[in-house]
Amino acid sequence: MDQRHRIASLALGLLASSGAAALDVKVVGLFPSKAVVQVDGGKLQTLSVGQKSAEGVALVTVDGDRATFDVEGQRVTLGLGHARMKPSSGPESVLLTANERGHFLTDGQVNGIPIRFAVDTGATFVSLPASEARRLGLDYRRGQRAIMETANGNAPAYRIKLDTVRVGGITVHNVDAVVMEGDNPSVALLGMSFLNRMDIKREGEIMTLTKRY
């Protein structure tokens, strides 16, 4: 199948700024600069970038197998990650959907810069590969040098603090992290230094993170 025409088939609850009602948005097809969506179980409609549906769902960008939408000033990217934005009243929460391998991947931000995370409840800290740390502009070698145990043995690392880590509508400040040199890890891991501030609930392929403090 042409990757430009891949089917997303993921549901997304987008909450309007009033916090009163949720819009159920399902992306059923992604094309260059276009997305086919179903809002609240209605008819399929094709949105071009910059176009807004009658329900107020606007397509901002399409990037490969992900699309970013805007609903009354709130933006969310629908792919293999976020499934819900936080309500304007009540605890901040986000739903994550597992991929075909059972892994929870999500788009997030570190110090305001986009990054792709793999959720890892077995990791003590948010863990970043050195290549990602450099991309994020982190001067990690000024951090505390440490040796971390990995599946491939001990590996050099640097302990640092991240100003902010954001996933969906949840932002956590002053997050402990480690930067791993070499290929450990090969992806950024969303570890317990972020997750221990959440209530975590898993039901099958859905994981709900709700911020506690």
Produce a short descriptive summary.
It contains 2 helices and 17 strands. With 213 residues, the chain is mostly beta strands. A hairpin with a 2-residue loop joins strand 5 (57-63) and strand 6.
What string gives the helices and strands in order?
EEEEEEEEEEEHEEEEHEE
The radius of gyration over CA amounts to: 18 Å
**Strand residue content:** over 45%
Low-confidence stretches: 1-21, 80-89
Number of helices: 2
* Average of per-residue pLDDT values: 79
Second rung of CATH, namely the architecture of the largest domain: Beta Barrel
CATH fourth-tier homologous superfamily of the largest domain: Acid Proteases
Got a strand count?
Answer: 17
Categorize the overall geometry.
elongated
Distance between the termini: 44 Å
Q: How many domains, as an integer? A: 2
**How would you sum up the major sheet?**
7 strands, mixed
**Helical residues, percent:** under 10%
Q: Looking at CATH, which topology of the largest domain would you report?
A: Cathepsin D, subunit A, domain 1
CATH class of the largest domain: Mainly Beta
Structural class: mainly beta
List its salient traits.
mainly beta; Cathepsin D, subunit A, domain 1; 2 domains; seven-stranded mixed sheet; four-stranded antiparallel sheet; 5% helix; elongated; disordered N terminus
Structure notes:
The protein is 5% helix and 54% strand. The protein has two helices and 17 strands. The strands form four sheets. Strands 9, 10, 11, 12, 13, 14 and 15 form a seven-stranded mixed sheet that branches. The chain has a four-stranded antiparallel sheet with strand order 1-2-3-4, with no helix packed on it.
